[in-house]
């Protein structure tokens, strides 16, 4: 095999000197010795990091695909792609393992093999990663690759740990090649490391021979203009430290952007923990992000903000994406991990140290203001008010940053129920930023809160909604800039009579995450340890094994543009046949609601779980249904008809300007309702009508679990009959559990509801009670309850005591945690983190750990307490429509050797360590 095979695949090589790499020194002006002086604390693993091991259709496919995708980035802000780890293994061109591939595209099986390259018997396996630490340069790369391969370093030599070669590498007779690709979004280039490990069959007790080479490939529009800069171990040290910091920052940003949005995750993605696993590393990550704040406009901005715009101040022409971007979002996210507020205060001090020398106010006042809301310190509220005052009196307010700060003041005033004052400030914001969606959104909200519904509708009608005629020219199987090869093949095979993926291949592609047994307390896992000293990490046997064994259509994560859209995309044909056709029409991928939401976010699809917060159209849907819940549908339609001009009447008058149909109507003084708002009214009407019709049937009708699920999700989004909606979701979760499956969509929504109603006030500064500052969403249901003061407290109390009890929430949370770990999320996502954190604040970490243990014991197999107390946990389980025969065999959630209990306890411990002072 050629020594440059795959590594240079699809590239045109061009040698250049290191001195010509101007992009490496792009951030020189902000470099100081302290940037490189404090390394991350490396975590010592006794077992290798377990990752997916997905086979390519042909050798070098993923690397070539990455090269092509890099040329399509262009000049638009982009986060780039998740890091790729590719392993080329020699199997022999005539061997059974080489020739037999039972998971491939059907076109290849039909004889079309034109895509196969001259691979000399090599086969490629790959996975993706987010969160690699590159700060140490070559040493960091070596450490990470050795960790993946179960190698340990002793000086300059490498050995197999405990003389054990990983199973997937054993028996190889030729060298294998490991290629690591990582995109630096600040330098706009792809870094690649190529490690060739020589024959290993005789190397168990010898040092392993490794050859290393490196490349940096800047973005280019085509192959002809593409440059490839080559490095060896001797010359890689010439690469500027800023490049490694940029790689680390890029990976850190992608880690949390992808982790908290399943729609942006690609199959085979591993979320690494080392950048935030302890307080020292958390603060180090904050320091790196602060360094790159001036380059925030190079990163993505959430589609929920609408178009990028700017104020009219010519002296300060910065646009909104200088303050609203992925760097700021991730900085807020990791500061929230420390609920004492120390991390947020550290971030503020770093901003002032780096950018506010001899100044009180500066270019990042808005970011500082957002960070002030990351802790529950009551003193923050007073500091928040003084900071706004100091900023607004320091200079002109007619600039972008001042307008954004005024919007934060609007949220604060809404929290204090100073609605009229908030309205005055919101009007000023819309004057300074007339094209900013949030400015108009806050203005409409204020009109609703003061009960001026006519002006609220007029404001909604004037909102700068983005509705792209069609999304970018990408397919459903493209995720975050790359084609999801596993998803693509899975979809193709599911549309045929072929087995989607065999159990053996699935286990080979996605091995179960594992961990060293000593990490767990001796009394956490009973029975004999499996596979020697190794146990599964965060496992639930029913979910990890039984569910996939009997449901081949579920052998995939719920991510990407396909499976994250709706529960309907994860159903079997039998389950789909049990759902009312009207629900499929409203909640399927071709529903008008999902199409409008995806058009607004310029994406291929939209998810029923979060469409109300991911696009401007979705946020308007949320606002209109909020208005409907407050006013009532009939009254709202009456207001609309009297407020807006009838379009048919308008057309007649344009054709006959001298003819007036109704002399009481002054056509020229009435506003025209925008087409998108007319469509929105129709969509909301269809949602409400369908729910009312289906709800008119008996509540105990024998519906399937998936139908209860769709009813609950639809009812929550349209804000119809809150009590029944929550009951539907609980019934759905239990219906799936009774059949031995896991309700991902229902579990996520139940935890979100619990957070909004029960936990959102915990550790809240009081600055923004009705908004989630990280997720950019309004707690609209909570706001509706607060406006109905007579029923607010009684409803919340009933909800916490009778519906969403602590034990039920902990059980749901443990199952979601286990599901995420099964798909290699070694960092808990935002929902899991904030639920666990707020529960620890509300009850105490020791109590939560003991309660988790109690829930585990009560739901464990062969425990008589389980069946006896089932209805205490799930009072709606009788309505699931599940087979009574299946209930008896599935009357438990956990088995004796499940490790989810110990893993959940370790997460509580991790949260506690992040609050400790250094």
UniProtKB/TrEMBL annotation:
Pfam families for the chain: ChAPs
GO biological process, one term: Golgi to plasma membrane transport
Residues of the signal peptide: none
InterPro entries in UniProt: ChAPs, TPR-like_helical_dom_sf
SUPFAM superfamilies xrefs: TPR-like
Entry's Gene Ontology cellular component terms: exomer complex
Protein name per UniProt: Piso0_004707 protein
């Amino acid at each position: 095999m050629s020594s440059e095979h795959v590594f240079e695949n699809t590239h045109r090589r061009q040698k250049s000197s290191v001195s010509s790499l101007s992009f490496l020194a792009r951030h020189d002006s902000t470099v100081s010795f302290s940037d490189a002086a404090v390394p991350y604390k490396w975590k010592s693993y006794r077992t290798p990091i377990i990752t997916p091991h997905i086979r390519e259709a042909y050798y070098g496919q993923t690397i070539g695909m990455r090269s092509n995708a890099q040329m399509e980035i262009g000049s638009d802000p982009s986060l780039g792609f998740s890091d790729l780890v590719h392993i080329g293994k020699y199997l022999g061109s005539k061997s059974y393992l080489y020739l037999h591939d039972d998971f491939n595209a059907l076109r290849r099986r039909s004889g079309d093999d034109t895509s196969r390259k001259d691979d000399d018997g090599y086969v490629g396996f790959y996975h993706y990663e987010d969160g690699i630490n590159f700060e140490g340069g070559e040493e960091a790369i070596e450490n990470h690759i050795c960790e993946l391969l179960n190698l340990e370093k002793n000086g300059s030599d490498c050995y197999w740990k405990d003389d054990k070669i990983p199973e997937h590498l054993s028996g190889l007779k030729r060298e294998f090649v490991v290629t690591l690709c990582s995109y630096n979004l600040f330098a706009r280039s792809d870094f690649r490391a190529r490690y060739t490990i020589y024959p290993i069959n005789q190397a168990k007790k010898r040092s392993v021979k490794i050859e290393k080479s490196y490349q940096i490939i800047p973005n280019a529009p085509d192959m002809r203009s593409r440059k490839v800069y080559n490095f060896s171990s001797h010359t890689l040290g010439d690469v500027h430290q800023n490049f490694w910091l940029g790689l680390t920052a890029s990976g850190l940003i992608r880690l949390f952007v992808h982790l908290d949005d399943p729609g942006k995750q690609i199959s085979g993605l591993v979320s690494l923990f080392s950048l935030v696993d302890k307080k020292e590393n958390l603060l180090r990550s904050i320091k790196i992000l602060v360094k790159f704040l001036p380059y925030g406009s190079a990163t993505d901005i959430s589609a929920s903000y609408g178009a990028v715009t700017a104020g009219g101040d010519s002296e300060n022409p910065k646009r909104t994406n200088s303050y609203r971007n992925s760097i700021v979002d991730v900085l807020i996210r990791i500061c929230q991990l420390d609920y004492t507020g120390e991390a947020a205060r550290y971030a503020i001090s770093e901003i002032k140290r780096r950018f506010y020398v001899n100044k009180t106010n500066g270019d990042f006042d808005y970011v500082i203001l957002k960070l002030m809301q990351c802790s529950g310190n009551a003193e923050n509220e007073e500091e928040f008010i003084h900071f706004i005052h100091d900023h607004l009196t320091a200079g002109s307010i007619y600039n972008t940053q001042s307008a954004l700060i005024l919007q934060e003041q609007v949220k604060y005033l809404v929290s204090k129920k100073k609605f009229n004052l908030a309205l005055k400030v919101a009007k000023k914001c819309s004057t300074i930023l007339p094209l900013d969606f949030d400015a108009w959104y806050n203005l409409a909200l204020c009109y609703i809160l003061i009960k001026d519904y006519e002006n609220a509708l007029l404001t909604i009608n004037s909102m700068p909604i983005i509705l792209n005629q069609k999304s970018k020219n990408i397919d459903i199987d493209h995720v975050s800039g790359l084609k999801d090869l596993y998803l693509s093949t899975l979809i193709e095979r599911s549309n045929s009579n072929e087995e989607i993926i065999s159990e053996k291949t699935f286990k080979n592609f996605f091995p179960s995450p594992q961990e060293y047994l000593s990490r767990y307390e001796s009394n956490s896992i009973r029975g004999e340890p499996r596979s020697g000293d190794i146990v599964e990490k965060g496992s639930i046997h029913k979910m990890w094994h039984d569910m996939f064994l009997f449901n081949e259509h579920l052998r995939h994560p719920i991510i990407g543009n396909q499976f994250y859209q709706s529960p309907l995309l994860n159903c079997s044909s039998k389950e789909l046949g049990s759902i009312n056709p009207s629900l499929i029409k409203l909640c399927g991928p071709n529903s008008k609601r999902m199409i409008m939401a995806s058009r607004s976010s310029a994406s291929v699809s939209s998810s029923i779980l979060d469409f109300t917060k991911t696009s401007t159209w979705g946020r308007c849907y949320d606002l209109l249904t909020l208005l409907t819940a407050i006013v009532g549908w009939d009254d709202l339609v009456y207001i609309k008809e009297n407020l807006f001009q009838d379009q048919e009447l308008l057309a007649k008058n344009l054709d006959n300007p001298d003819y007036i149909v109704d002399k009481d109507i002054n056509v020229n003084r009435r506003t025209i309702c925008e087409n998108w708002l007319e469509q929105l009214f129709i969509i909301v009407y269809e949602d409400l009508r369908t729910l009312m019709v289906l709800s008119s049937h008996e509540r105990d009708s024998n519906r399937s679990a998936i139908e209860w699920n769709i009813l609950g999700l639809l009812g929550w989004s349209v804000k119809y009959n809150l009590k029944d909606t929550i009951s539907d979701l609980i019934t759905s979760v239990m219906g799936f559990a009774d059949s031995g499956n896991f309700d991902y969509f229902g579990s996520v929504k139940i935890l979100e509801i619990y957070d909004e109603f029960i936990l959102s006030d915990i550790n809240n500064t009081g600055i923004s009670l009705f908004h989630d500052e990280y997720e950019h969403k309004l707690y609209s249901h909570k706001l509706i309850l607060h406006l109905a003061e007579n029923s607010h407290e009684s409803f919340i109390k009933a909800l916490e005591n009778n519906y969403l009890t602590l034990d039920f929430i902990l059980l749901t949370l443990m199952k979601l945690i286990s599901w995420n770990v099964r798909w290699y999320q070694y960092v808990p996502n935002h929902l899991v983190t904030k639920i666990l954190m707020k529960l620890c604040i509300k009850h105490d970490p020791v109590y939560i750990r003991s309660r988790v243990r109690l829930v585990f014991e009560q739901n464990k197999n062969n425990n008589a307490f389980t069946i006896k107390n089932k209805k205490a946990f799930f009072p709606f389980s009788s309505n699931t429509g599940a087979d009574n025969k299946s209930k008896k065999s599935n009357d438990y959630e956990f088995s004796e050797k499940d490790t989810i209990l110990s893993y959940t306890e370790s997460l509580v411990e991790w949260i506690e360590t992040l609050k400790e002072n250094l």
